[in-house]
Amino acid sequence: MRVVFAGTPEPAVPSLRRFIESERHEVVAVLTRPDAVAGRGRKLLRSPVAALADEHGIPVLTPRKPSEPEFLDRLRELAPDCCPVVAYGALLPQAALDIPRFGWINLHFSLLPAWRGAAPVQAAVDAGDEITGASTFLIEAGLDTGPVYGMMTEKIRLTDTAGDLLGRLADGGAALLEQTLDGVEDGTLQAVPQPTEGVSYAPKITVEAARIRFDLPALAVHRRIRAVTPAPGAWAELDGARLKLGPVEMVEDTLPEGLIEVRKSGVLVGTATTAVRLGQLQPPGKKMMNALDWARGARLAEGTVLR
Q1: Annotation-wise, does 166 bind a ligand?
Q2: Which residues form the signal peptide (predicted)?
Q3: What is the pLDDT of residues 165-204, one digit of tens each?
Q4: Model's pTM, two decimal places?
Q5: 300 carries a ligand binding annotation
Q6: CB of 219 within 8 A of CB of 250?
Q7: How far apart are CA 120 and CA 118, in angstroms?
Q8: CA neighbor of 87 nearest in space, from 9, 184, 190, 26
Q9: Beta strands 2-7 and 26-31: pairing type?
């Protein structure tokens, strides 16, 4: 099958690599978001998907919007049979959806119809789900509403960050996506409409939403930090400055909400229930470090509170 692969971030790379190595499918081009400015040097960086395509000499398409006439004309010239999609990052117009004969098949990192939207893995961790997974579905006009071809499941471990979980789903989902295209081409796989019950949404998590509230129970704090690690990154305010927080451990001690207490066993912070022990953290302008090392150097005043 001739495919134009659409994707942008690192979690899309395992799927693209699988299609590149496939003896059955030919990647005739890659669709990805335009190069973005990043880092202190403010340099233009290729997306991970574009970088992999460059390594293999695959043409890379980077329209600002996939509705641009020039892009649509180029897509028609390429005449793909199917366009597999993994976290491309832009809405596809109907004019683009109509071009490949087998449509655009998306790999979404949830068990649809649960957690439709931009941040399904973060939402699953934050909600305390025990099981999640990935789904392949035919893209249509609605937000992740198309009929489903296949699913895989994955257990969420108690220490999983969103990054940990997404890494496993990206690897397992790559096989699911390839198998889906195989079945579609063979005519052995039919898409099934999503159920109307069990729908939930996972909007993109903003930096402000990643601020940790210590007036919540310890379990909620524990889950939220894991859910926003590594991106956009958990943080709290200390003396007017942002302190980036890594995953924490729940303990049985109790402290007032947000109060920091430094002990030989570690740095504790109070929540609405029991305290949490800080792990790694990052003060402004410094690298991630052990919380106890930070506290010893910071010489915190008694009664210091994280807000």
Answers
A1: no
A2: none
A3: 999 999 999 999 999 999 999 999 999 999 999 999 999 9
A4: 0.95
A5: no
A6: yes
A7: 6
A8: 9
A9: parallel
